[in-house]
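In the current project phase, our protein records have gained a structure token line. A sample record follows, to show the layout:
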Amino acid sequence: MSTYHTWMRFFTPSPLHHRLGLVCLGVGLQHGALPTVGPRTLDHHVAVVIHSGSGWFAGPDGRRLPVTAPGLIWLTPGTPHHYGADPGTGWDESFVDFTGPATATYTELGYIEPDRPLVPLADTAGPRAAVSRIVRAARRGNPLLEVETGAAVHELLVALRRARADVSPDGDPVLQALARDAFQPLSVADHAARHNMTPAELRTAVRRGAGCSPKDYLLGIRLGRAKELLAATELPVAAVARRVGYDDPAYFSRLFARRVGTAPVRFREQQGRAVPGGWSDTIPDPDHPPMISP
């Protein structure tokens, strides 16, 4: 007779914890020739990560689709589903049940894909690490349980997004090129032409890769750099505007105030940290900070 092993914990976060955006409802680790799940319909989300082995999945139409590790099964609220491991070989899975208002935003950003219940993964090391955090937090009597496990669900969604097999480990080359050219005074149509794409094709590529429009993607990069220059240098606002791709300082100031919520001059007053040593573009290693000479 086939055997399997299973461990699971379930949680009941309070209404206050739900206001954090995401809460973890349960976590499980299972391997072997597991019993078939469903048919059933849930009222919350579940990420089922298949680390090794194979099996099948059926959605609302009842068609059985093959599941091969490494992979992800998305179970979304209100969607009938039915799945199981191959009885001969079984599989190794982790599952995390979660819910909360932030699931709608993660879905809009493309991190959760209700229309794509089966997602091939390049590997499961990142997702496994996030699930391990939930497992460690699940010890009985942990006073930080709900907040710790909720934070790990955010981490899991990012890890699953990064682990998708259709995403290069180095990132999307279109997004990399947009980031490289973000400070040039180019329109979205100009950027599209550089990639031999139509503006519509560029919008689709950026939304798939970054969960937003090309305009918003470029704006985020420009405003981030503008904040750095305002905080760490004494460049006039007009010079900052030019450095990040805006020839019209007044337009830049209006755009900055509308998106950031405060004017560039006010932001500098609040965040200014100009120092004689200058600004570094080298990302430091938090585990090995540079030594300060006496």
Summary: The chain has a mean pLDDT of 87. DSSP finds eleven helices and nine strands in the chain. The first helix runs from residue 15 to 18.
